[in-house]
## 1
Amino acid sequence: MAYLWLILSGACSVAASVALKAAGAGSAQATLTAQALPYLGAVGAYGLGFALYALALRQLDLTLAYPLMVACAIVGVFLYGLVSGAESISAMRMAGAACIAVGVFLMSR
């Protein structure tokens, strides 16, 4: 169950990052409420992710849990970039993500 909490925590981090990206791209003519909603969503997603991460830490070592959670978030951000088309995924970025994945794998051993 701890690994599920980590995956969900990483997903919350991705959701918060996407919300912050949307907030930065918002229209200057939008109402204050419309401008604040993405920021509030990001804070909520980060808060939920924090709680899920805390649940995972009850059962996993920190040196394993944190890299795995970050790796889940990196995969999620890459998937967002690919699906939305809003981000460019270059060979260098993919190589960097692969290095991170190898590092997470090595740390989990």
Note: Residues 2-107 form one domain.
## 2
Amino acid sequence: MVEQINYWAVFVAAMSTFVVGSLWYSPVMFGKKWMQLNGFSEDSIKQARYPMPVIFGSSFVAALLAAFALALFLGSESDLTFGMFAGFMIAAFWIATSRLTTALFEQQKMALVLIHAGYDVVSYVVMGAIIGAW
């Protein structure tokens, strides 16, 4: 099954998470609320625990692994519609529910959970669309 994976589609799907993330967490969408809910300021973001190359590099590796697993799940016979459907189902019913459980036990703010879960749903639908259509 691994030999049938379109690695360009996996790469582009992984990159798409950065496009979605840059929009989702921008000041125009949810970036200001995300910062407020986390207690972040512009200065605290600049003084992050990890350097930005580590954050972005690790995030890309994680997105690459997720896209690869999604490609394995979708298989070679997938199409745009099934890719989007599978991406939605995975994000909404596996990832978001897992986030919710963790958030409940950690007493996190539900608005923050919804921001992150919304990003996951959109990202996985886009990744599924790319992999399924390609």
Note: The mean pLDDT is 95.
## 3
Amino acid sequence: MARIAGVNIPTNKRVVIALQYIHGIGAAKAKEITAKLEIAPERRVQDLSDQEVLQIREAIDASYTVEGDLRRQTSMNIKRLMDLACYRGLRHRKGLPVRGQRTHTNARTRKGKAKPIAGKKK
């Protein structure tokens, strides 16, 4: 099992798909990495040599912010907005949708399970 950026990537999957298991690498970046290193995207991780895995690891470390650093950066950005007390920060603080979605109905992912209001009968 290959370990890249602190993540065990699956060995029986294609390289492009396996790289997407790393937080911060999606389809476009995975294709870009394999193209830059001239690794055929249809090859499986188990078919890669140790040298190729090392090349992938070095390319990711040099060019991309992934895993823990990316998560830390995202959380620091959200914390900064909350400290500024700007509109987006207040929405984060209250646990409501941040990007202008409606909240009269829906928004259950952000708001959590519906709470009944006592004494509200029609």
Note: The mean pLDDT is 91.
